[in-house]
Amino acid sequence: MNNLDTIKPTIILVFGATGDLAKRKLFPAFYNLYLDGRMPEKFEIVALGRAKSSDDTFRSNVSTNLTAFSRNKITSEKAYQKFASHITYLQNDIDQEESFQILKSKLDAIDLSFGERANRLFYLSIAPSFIVTISNNIKKLDLAANPEQDRIIIEKPFGYNKSSAELLNKLLSETFKEKQIYRIDHYLGKETVQNILAFRFGNSMFEPLWNRNFIDSVQITVAEEVGVEDRGSFYEGAGALRDMIQNHLMQILTMVAMEAPNSLQADEIRNRKADVLKAIRRITAEEVKHYTVRGQYDKGSIKDKQVPGYLQEKGVGANSNTETFVAMKFYLDNWRWQDVPFYVRTGKRMKEKQSSIVIQFNPVTHSTFSFGKENMMPNRLIINIQPAMDIRLQFMTKKPGLSLSLKPAEMVFDYFSCSTQSPEAYETLLLDALQGDPTLFMRSDQVEEAWDVVTTIQEAWENDKFSSLYKYEAGGWGPEAANELLARQGHAWASNTLNDVEPEEKK
Ligand code: BG6
């Protein structure tokens, strides 16, 4: 959503600078923005961490991490040093006011060297339990006193249920105005997710069809091959519902279902998204089993490699009932979407990494073709978010030959045909935050509504610990119950490309 405005001098403060996210995503994003000439002319990154380190050691670690994780690699040591000269490391103990005194002196010194009071962008890449302490210390020392210049980015998870999110919003509001708070959901920074808006509202031919009169159902899949890796102990307290559904999948859903915004103003877009979250039907505890399926991966094999089950992962309790897979359906009670099921699923250790949206159109009203309706594939529009980045339109066409029989075909727009190098989500989002554009970040009401949607489910699962947790073999598409969820309404999870469709169906 960014434009080319020159950004004022900025100090970026990264709390948790030695952590995984900073290593893999944040510093590579700063580096790539720097190479693209998108960083402010004057900027300083102050990396904060508990460990003792020198500027040189920290910069050399950043260099190693860029080699591993950045889309643009370091081409010359001299060029890297130019970027690295903008980074300083400061040991910081979040609980100690004294650490924040030192930070304040550092900020003042940088302002002095810039010759003006710079913007301040606080990035909290730390465990959620530290957010309030940091925010309080920022307030005590008046570090973010200018609402026009100072911003804070907060990583997910934003709370762990509705009431904790409300409390966090309230506590943050004691230090920051809402317009200063940037709650990040990195899915919103993905090119193909942003393209949903462009596709829906930059064309005239799809929007008239984009409603209950023409659309039969919608599917959203975010499947991962990875397991919980070394995040077992974090994941134990989260599970797929909190980790993925409440944020990433629900945000994608809002992009698919929202009404057309009147403008690209941040609040206009965020209002339309909040409307969708409000329209999602709240289900009762008794209905949870009917609307949701949860699963946990067992051992299995992915691409010929044996992988352990969730219970064998480090940091996971031997009897854990944390879900690593969720499939569920949503209904939106509004004019556009009444009675159209939105099926969503996400899981770890699935057959392949794949995030996609399938818009399935109504079947033909009357089939004129001799073989009847059963061999007809419904028209589908498929938006592949990652790793494939494309849009596919599937329709029936005449099979070449003397007889009049049909077969499915698809037209493909491949995102990579426009550009082979697309920015990473964090680059887009950091640039937006540097420029003060909150469009792709979540407002307090959006986060709270999203939690509200899952509250009953969270509670029902907590009260009914083991009965409905299905095991699924790693390397598949989740438990059979996830297929039954759709089959009950005559639906099935659709492939994200025609290439995977069974030859029988293609004939
Ligand atoms: C994170 C979740 O928000 O998103 C992780 O905490 C998940 O569990 C990750 O693996 C997926 O992101 P991406 O961009 O790799 O699809």
From TrEMBL:
Keywords: Carbohydrate metabolism, Glucose metabolism, NADP, Oxidoreductase. Its EC number is 1.1.1.49. HAMAP family: G6PD. NADP(+) binds at residues 16-23, 50, 93-94, 156. The lineage of its organism: Bacteria, Pseudomonadati, Bacteroidota, Flavobacteriia, Flavobacteriales. PROSITE patterns: G6P_DEHYDROGENASE. The keyword Oxidoreductase applies. This is Glucose-6-phosphate 1-dehydrogenase. It is an enzyme of class 1 (oxidoreductase). InterPro entries: G6P_DH, G6P_DH_AS, G6P_DH_C, G6P_DH_NAD-bd, NAD(P)-bd_dom_sf. It catalyses: D-glucose 6-phosphate + NADP(+) = 6-phospho-D-glucono-1,5-lactone + NADPH + H(+). Residues 14-195 form the Glucose-6-phosphate dehydrogenase NAD-binding domain. The gene is zwf.
